[in-house]
Design goal:
The protein is an alpha+beta fold. It contains 8 helices and 10 strands.
């Protein structure tokens, strides 16, 4: 049995008059599937807002319309659809030619205990579990890379003058889901016990250290209170940017089947809904039935037209690959 609660908030901060951030925080299809996203617009007044809203709407609509697809592929395609929609909007409106956005999108599947991530830019995904905050996404920026490699401390990276220069964003050119150097995608296990998934824009991660974030998550409050607290702390620290925080608290009963330990980096996962397995079995039975019918027709044909020919049919083995 799993218990979940989610909450998200975006705030303009203390310096900017407009808010170019957006977010997704909702159940999709049923109570076992949760769609989360932190989206940060680029391009100044109006442009960034428009790109973020396009991404929010397109990603949500695409996921809702595709409940039976393999989840990682589907989440990646949702991000690609958002990217391409932003590009097409830019081409049709010159006043929005500089717009774009970054996005971290996560689909939580509580039924099979998997988290599917598609990520572009420098918004972030963390998981907080057993008192430890782990960053699951990787910033697409030189400063972020240097921080992860240990060349810069967290505080040095937060103060770096080139902190906000990114090398990937939605809205640059038309993409496909499997284009190299575009989407970072991964599958993470949702382990038994309590896990908190935090998605945020750089308006949070540039204002608060990991230790400060942990101080809030460790209180183990409901996601709404934690989200409100983190937004308030970011503003108290200066609020130099829009700040967006999305938190999902997941509690998987330890009596439930254990989750796979480790990180699964590709789309080998068979899908996100158990009924897909039943569909596979039905397809397999149909294929076997067609093969059997073909064999009978083949034998009857030669029995009728080739009486002098003795046919010996060897045993056959049909192997159907796992989807």
């Amino acid at each position: 049995m799993s218990v979940s609660s989610v909450f998200g908030k975006t705030d303009p901060g203390r310096v900017r008059a407009n808010n170019e951030d957006s977010f997704i925080c909702r159940y999709v299809w049923d109570r076992d599937h949760i769609l989360l996203a932190a989206i940060d617009g680029i391009g100044g007044y109006e442009g960034g807002e428009v790109a973020a809203e396009i991404a929010c709407s397109v990603i949500t609509d695409y996921v809702l319309a595709n409940p039976d697809n393999v989840c990682l592929d589907m989440v990646k395609q949702a991000v690609v659809e958002a990217n391409n929609s932003i590009v097409r909007r830019k081409e049709s409106d010159e006043t929005l030619s500089g717009m774009g956005c970054v996005a971290t999108v996560v689909l939580l599947d509580l039924a099979i205990k998997r988290a599917y991530m598609a990520h572009v830019g420098d918004s972030r995904l963390y998981v907080f579990r057993d008192g430890v905050l782990t960053k699951l996404s990787h910033d697409h920026s030189i400063v972020g890379y240097r921080e992860e490699m240990g060349d810069l401390t967290e505080e040095e990276a937060m103060r770096h003058p080139r902190r906000n220069i990114i090398d990937r964003a939605l809205g640059d050119v038309i993409h496909m889901a499997d284009d190299p150097n575009f989407i970072d995608a991964a599958i993470f296990p949702i382990e038994c016990g309590v896990s908190q998934y935090l998605l945020c824009s750089d308006g949070l991660s540039d204002m608060l250290t990991s230790r400060q974030i942990v101080s809030v998550l460790a209180e183990d409050l409901d996601p709404e209170m934690e989200t409100e607290s983190l937004v308030e702390m970011a503003n108290e620290a200066g609020g130099r940017d829009n700040v967006t925080v999305v938190i999902a608290r997941i509690d998987i009963d330890s009596s439930d089947a254990g989750a796979t330990v480790g990180i699964l980096h590709d789309a080998a996962d068979t899908g996100c809904r158990s009924r897909s397995r039943w569909r596979f079995l039905i397809y397999a039975l149909i294929v076997l039935s067609v093969i059997a019918a073909g064999i009978l027709i083949f034998r009857n044909f030669y029995a009728t037209h080739s009486a002098d020919v003795e046919m010996v049919m060897a045993d056959s083995v049909v192997r159907l690959g796992q989807g």
